[in-house]
Every structure is written in C-alpha cells, then in structure tokens.
Design brief:
This protein has 154 residues and is α+β, with helices and mostly antiparallel strands. Helix content is 34%, strand content 32%. The chain has one domain. Helix 1 packs parallel to helix 4.
C-alpha cells in the first residue's frame, strides 16, 4: 500500500510536480491485525529479553527490539548481533543471529519451526503456536548461554 502525500515542486525542474511517496508500515494495518501482531511481539520480546539477560539492548521501541552482544566484532569494531524482534507489514520477524555462527543448533530445529524460517536466522510469525514458541524460547536460551560462555569476563 502506497500512501501519497501532498505534491511538492521538484528542485530540478520548476515545471514538474512529483508526489512524495511513503512506504506502508505496520502502523497502516487494520487494528485487529495490529493487536494480534502486538501480542506476538510482546511474547517474542519477553522471550528474547530473558534469553539475552547479559547483553546490550540497542533499541527497544514499540514494535522494534534490537539486542547486541557485549563482544566487539574485530572486523567492524562494533558490538556483535544477538537478535531482533520486529513488527513488519504482514508478520512479526524474530532473528537469532547466532545461528550463523552455530549451524549445529539450526540442525535441531523441528519441521514446524522450519516452516516459519526465512533464510538462516529469521523466523516469521502471523500466529504464535505454543509449541513453536517454547521451541524458539529454548533455542534462544541456548544462544544466550553460548554468548555468555563467549564473554567470560562477566
């Protein structure tokens, strides 16, 4: 869905008019879908925060949670990524970035959770099944323990 804002005059050509186009966001959803996504977001957010208790919360806004590790990436000289939970337009995305470093954990994912998987680390949800939620919680807890073992200074 594209929302058109009032037109403005182009700085390059004084004769042409171009519309200002804004992409649709999660806030443009119907209220029922948004409340369902908010419930899923709150559940996944609590799961992610409990698993990453010793990590750095980079962003915690309504509909967007970003957690970074305390470990500094030598290539980028920035904190590493632990995971994110974000409300998108048609789903809630949960990323467990540590699955890139530990593919053996990804081999243990059930078929039900694998159907929700997009790529290697992203899981998309429109509805939250309790079985999948508990499996994702277990997986994030394991990732939290792995990160805690990588940071022995604390």
């Amino acid at each position: 869905m594209v929302v058109r804002a009032p037109c403005y005059r182009s700085p390059r050509s004084r004769r042409s008019w171009r519309p200002l186009v804004r992409r649709a966001s999660a806030l443009d959803l119907a209220p029922k879908e948004l409340s369902n996504f908010q419930e899923i977001f709150v559940s996944l957010r609590q799961m992610m925060l409990s698993a990453a208790s010793g990590e750095v919360i980079a962003k915690d806004l309504p509909g967007d949670l970003v957690i970074r590790t305390r470990r500094i990436d030598p290539r980028t000289e920035a904190p590493g990524w632990f995971g994110t939970v974000t409300i998108k337009k048609s789903y809630v995305a949960c990323h467990l970035i540590g699955l890139y470093d530990h593919p053996e954990l990804a081999a243990e994912i059930s078929d039900g959770l694998r159907k929700r998987q997009q790529g290697k680390t992203c899981f998309n949800f429109r509805k939250l099944d309790p079985d999948l939620s508990s499996e994702l919680s277990r997986l994030s807890e394991v990732m939290g323990k792995v990160e805690a073992d990588r940071n022995p200074s604390e």
